[in-house]
Amino acid sequence: KKTYDYLGDILLHIQRIARQYCYLHNLLKGQVSLSKLSENFSYDTYRWAVSVVSTRQNNILNNNGVAQLALIPVMDFLNHQFGRECIHYDLNLKQIECKTMNDINKSEQIFMFYGKRTNAEYLIHNGFVPEQPNPNDTYLLKLALPKTDKAFEEKRQLLERYGIETSDKFLFFVDNELFNPAIFIFIKIFLMNLDDVSNTLSKNMTMDEFFNIYTLDQDNDVRTFLKTRIQLLIRSLNLTCLTNNDFIDYLLMSEHNILASALKKLELP
Known about the structure:
Blueprint: H1 5-29, H2 35-39, H3 43-56, E1 58-61, E2 67-70, E3 79-80, E4 87-90, E5 95-98, E6 111-112, H4 119-126, E7 140-144, H5 152-161, E8 167-171, H6 181-191, H7 194-201, H8 207-213, H9 220-237, H10 246-267
Parallel strand pairs: 3-6
Antiparallel strand pairs: 1-2, 4-5, 7-8
């Protein structure tokens, strides 16, 4: 079964909470005066407490103007709704101000926008995945250059010239839903032979010049490589075997939609 990056992040978060709990539990057990507290200090209650704090904390400025985390009563009861940023910190009054995104009638629920996050980030940091379409959702494409490549060092230098790592994650789309040009540059360098890489290294081309000279958005080899990678990723999602965990299911379906959209764009002339 494929291990998704965001699931790895979630498991790492759970692992940290478990370690903290074990440390604190052992610390309490060693204190006779706190034995009663130790008896009622369960992992479930500690995990709940950590989740409550970590999903509701906000940045404010202290008296010295330094950012610090804090819990803000009432505001932490507001649920999420997509819209515009509605939280503002007033430097003069030293207080958080929350403005509604629309007119509120009596007995209506007040919502706030939790900020521009991907669905995976909402799950990790807020504990849910929005059911509504998320305009800020995206997919991080992982690409890596094998160290067994005979031209690895030359390719590493060329990638470094354009600010790209030999193992990197790329946003699929940039402004106006255009493909991220860094993806095409990485794949082009990935597919180059030693002579081509050495020749390109000898020329001090900018990133834009490299992209335009090779007309990477029209390069059949690059597009075929990317289409094949996306098709494999779509198959690996295997939506026919959803877990009945609503949040994970929403996440998998949103990833599938992004990948399908990218594949469709690549198939256009």
